[in-house]
């Protein structure tokens, strides 16, 4: 394996990135994941808000997102609500928040610190663009092992308290994110009952009003 490099999304990589997305979330409904035309739209609308990880010339991971205006009084939403429709990106050019639509890493490249690096680079994007912070629906893959024992809300609370470990949410909390409850029907995924956690990171250097 060559040294990994980090760059912005390019439309020519759309098919490879779609494969990375679908490989990373094998139990999710593919209709709720990124498709080729949406990735091409994102490359046109907001390349500065994306990170693609290359092994040589080949994409192997990505951290994607858009700008939005997020209503914290109505937090229930699906990832499709954010990503737009008809092949669009969902990007709002003057949005105050960075919405993280996907972090996806090919299975053979996991456990190398790529995910943590992508979250750090998202934070830098917020600093560079003076955004309020990052908001996202965080998948909770570990809930699949507890879905018959407790509610999603109880699971997220236990992970946040350090009583349970989740491969994704635990890392996000360690990276400075706050778990602010759960989102129903976020991505159709029977393994976790389609639940996700609402995660938020506030940019301490944001020049506007924090939420």
- Which descriptor suits the 3D outline? globular
Order of helices and strands: EHHEEHEHEHHEE
- Helix/strand-derived category reads alpha+beta
Distance between the termini: 42 Å
The overall pLDDT average reads: 93
Query: Which CATH class applies here?
Result: Alpha Beta
Percent of residues in beta strands: 15-25%
Strand order of the largest sheet: 1-2-3-4-5-7-6
Stretches where pLDDT is under 50 for at least 5 consecutive residues are none
CATH fold name? Aminopeptidase
CATH arch. level architecture:
3-Layer(aba) Sandwich
Going by CATH, what is the homologous superfamily? Gcn5-related N-acetyltransferase (GNAT)
Radius of gyration: 16 Å
Helix content: 25-40%
Number of helices: 6
Instruction: Report the strand count.
Output: 7
């Amino acid at each position: 394996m060559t040294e990994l490099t980090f760059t912005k999304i390019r439309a020519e990589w759309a098919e490879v990135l779609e494969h990375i997305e679908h490989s990373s979330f094998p139990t999710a409904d593919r209709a709720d994941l990124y498709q080729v035309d949406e990735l091409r739209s994102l490359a046109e609308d907001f390349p500065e808000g994306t990170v693609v990880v290359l092994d040589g010339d080949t994409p192997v991971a990505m951290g994607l997102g858009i700008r939005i205006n997020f209503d914290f009084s109505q937090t229930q939403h699906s990832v499709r609500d954010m990503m737009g429709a008809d092949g669009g990106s969902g990007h709002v050019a003057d949005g105050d928040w960075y919405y993280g639509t996907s972090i996806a890493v090919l299975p053979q490249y996991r456990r190398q610190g790529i995910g943590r690096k992508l979250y750090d680079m998202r934070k830098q994007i917020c600093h560079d663009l003076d955004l309020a912070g990052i908001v996202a629906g965080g998948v909770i893959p570990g809930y699949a092992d507890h879905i018959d024992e407790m509610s999603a809300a109880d699971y997220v609370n236990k992970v946040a308290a350090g009583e349970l470990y989740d491969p994704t949410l635990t890392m996000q909390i360690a990276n400075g994110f706050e778990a602010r409850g759960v989102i129903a029907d976020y991505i159709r995924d029977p393994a976790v009952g389609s639940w996700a956690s609402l995660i938020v990171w506030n940019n301490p250097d944001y020049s506007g009003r924090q939420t």
